[in-house]
Amino acid sequence: MSQLWLLEHGRAQRAAREAQVRRARRRRGARVLGIGLVVAIGALLGLMAARAAGPGTQMPRRASLGRASAVRPAAVPPRSGYGAELASVAQRVQIPLKLPLRSGLLFDVHTGQVLWEQRAEDLLPIASLTKMMTALVVVAHASPNAPVMVTPAAVHFSGSGVGLLPLGKRVQLRTMLYGLMLPSGNDAAIALAQHVAGTRGRFIAMMNAQARAMGLTCTHFNTVSGIVDQDNYSCASDLAIIAHAVLTQPLLAQIVAARDAVLPFPIKGGKLYLYNNNPLLRSGYPGTDGVKTGYTTAAGRCLVASARRGGAWLGVVLLHSADPPGQAQRLLDAGFNALRS
């Protein structure tokens, strides 16, 4: 099989996936239920659409939690939904980022409205940001107090990990979730997936089913941990929805807000000490309460972070960033300032 054929085949696959995403977005736009007339100066007339929220589920679907007051240009199809609608002009952030960033989004966690974005619907590998969905599927299908078997596959992991999981022992699921989200344990991801679904393949199918249930239109999973880049991708607007689901799930919200943790563990001494990789938590950025880091060579340095200030609650998504902590802090600071004005 020639290298040229493989290259063309890969391009065709990528083009097909992108076409599928574009069709899904058009379908999403066609489902808009409410239309309001907005009068502007002179001959300018714009339409905004808002989709009513769907029936409640255990985890949030892609539904608007608030309505934007900004009018999109007539040439641009209106977007609706959490992580898609623009905030009012006064609340939007205009800030140049000096260092490279492939994709990003600054959003209001309460409403889902977008204060700033850069290529927010580009499909990109997301590395260990994948683990946000892993955690959501686990808590939806298993008890925090359940004992999780440490399997051979979990012990023979690649990449980042808890690193001390004892083969053949059982570890409380809650402890495994901390190991999944704080040090980004690929070993914990494998053990949790096998506990919930029996195999990693079945668990990945559950992750993709949950993505569809949440209305995600540019997300596909091919790994429980994020260690695999091929066919494991999302976009900043979908990641805002996933982050919101994590931040509003009580146990996961508690976990991702922890700077460190001491947990019961079946080894000598009986305790496991874990430290959060989140650079905003590590540096003490005011109000930080989540959520997840990620890195592979293909994905680059990725960060989803959130912080509260006063009554405001903002989230930021950065994909393939040259400076995740610096860019996150600049965007969050600008967002909080815009909301105060």
Describe this structure as you would to a colleague:
The chain is globular, with a radius of gyration of 20 Å. α2 (131-141) runs parallel beside α7. The protein has helices at 3-30, 131-141, 152-155, 173-181, 186-197, 200-213, 236-247, 250-256, 279-283, 324-340, and strands spanning 34-39, 45-50, 101-108, 114-118, 124-125, 147-149, 170-172, 233-234, 260-264, 271-275, 288-296, 300-309, 312-321. It contains 10 helices and 13 strands. Residues 1-10 and 23-79 have low confidence and may be disordered. 35% of the residues lie in helices and 22% in strands. The chain has a 5-stranded antiparallel beta sheet with strand order 4-3-13-12-11, with helices on both faces. A two-stranded antiparallel sheet has the order 1-2. It has a two-stranded antiparallel ribbon with strand order 5-8. With 341 residues, it is an alpha+beta fold. It has a domain at 125-340: Beta-lactamase (3-Layer(aba) Sandwich).
Record the SSE blueprint.
Elements lengths: L2 H28 L3 E6 L5 E6 L50 E8 L5 E5 L5 E2 L5 H11 L5 E3 L2 H4 L14 E3 H9 L4 H12 L2 H14 L19 E2 L1 H12 L2 H7 L3 E5 L6 E5 L3 H5 L4 E9 L3 E10 L2 E10 L2 H17 L1
Antiparallel strand pairs: 1-2, 3-4, 3-13, 5-8, 6-7, 9-10, 11-12, 12-13
Descriptive terms for the model:
single chain, 341 residues, alpha+beta, Beta-lactamase, two-stranded antiparallel ribbon, 10 helices, 35% helix, 22% strand
